[in-house]
Amino acid sequence: MSQTVRRAIDILEFIARGPRTQTEVGDHLGVHRSTALRILESLTEGGLARRLPDGRYAVGHRLAGLAQLALEQFGLKEIAAGHLRTLGEHCGHTVHLAALEGDQIVYVDKVDPVDGVRLYSQIGRPVTLHTAGVAKAILAHLPRPTAEALLAGCDFAPHTTTTITDPAAYRKALDETRARGFAVDDGEYEDYVNCVAVPVRDSGGEVIAAISVTALKAKADLTALERVVLPELTTTAETISRELGWRP
């Protein structure tokens, strides 16, 4: 990559975080103000940057349009697929991707372990809201009215001895999930499996999906999943979020 192109990319990333003066751009690049100005003028002519009335530079409207067109070429499942398979190969457990679709949270992809037990979950089927880790990871980060609307049809039926059947207790679990950044399923639908799950964000920072790793308790309990699997799971979700356009 040429030095000029690299500098142009650096400038776009810099001004995308907030309007900057010519001097600030030059200092950020470590170049003379005249060099920064030359690149800024080229970006402005191309519509990728714009000069504000106060003299500072911000991203241009053309860049926003190009970003939207680019995002429309990618779907969540397509972006996530390779990352999910890599995660599954590394951890040796079942990996799920679930997404918010209308008034449901639905499994959109699944990676089964090569030599493990296949779980009941099916791509295209809704998740069980009050038990699934992916559901908690999504619901915990939705606006409260949206989450409550989704939960309005939840029966909180018991499936195992650890199923959360009290709505108030479930809301508390969502608060805990949001605070620590990940959700758990402690054998709440099938008592012989457990899982950890983390959210996936879109370009606007909204949580639109979640990824989970589900394991047989005999192979890995929650403590083991949190210690061994959670770090890579979190990194995978962040990578997918970034490819969807999210920036911390």
Number of helices in the DSSP assignment: 9
Encode the helix/strand succession as letters: HHHEEHHEEHHHEEEH
Largest sheet: 5 strands, antiparallel
- CATH superfamily assignment of the largest domain? GAF domain
Main sheet: strand order: 4-3-7-6-5
Radius of gyration: 22 Å
Question: Given the helix and strand composition, which structural class is it?
Answer: alpha+beta
The domain count comes to: 2
Query: Which fold does the CATH topology of the largest domain refer to?
Result: Beta-Lactamase
Oligomer: single chain
How does the overall form come out from the CA principal axes? elongated
Summarize the structure.
By secondary structure, this protein is an alpha+beta fold. The protein is 46% helix and 18% strand.
Explained architecture:
The protein is built from 9 helices and 7 strands. The longest helix is centred in the C-terminal third of the chain and has 22 residues. It is of the alpha+beta class and 248 residues long. 46% of the residues lie in helices and 18% in strands. It has 2 domains: 67 residues, Winged helix-like DNA-binding domain superfamily/Winged helix DNA-binding domain (Arc Repressor Mutant, subunit A, Orthogonal Bundle), CATH 1.10.10.10; 171 residues, GAF domain (Beta-Lactamase, 2-Layer Sandwich). Helix 2 packs across helix 3. The chain has a 5-stranded antiparallel beta sheet with strand order 4-3-7-6-5. A two-stranded antiparallel sheet has the order 1-2.
Descriptive labels:
elongated, transcription, 2 domains, five-stranded antiparallel β-sheet, 46% helix, Beta-Lactamase, WH-like_DNA-bd_sf, single chain, two-stranded antiparallel sheet, Arc Repressor Mutant, subunit A, 7 strands, DNA-binding, alpha+beta, transcription regulation, 248 residues
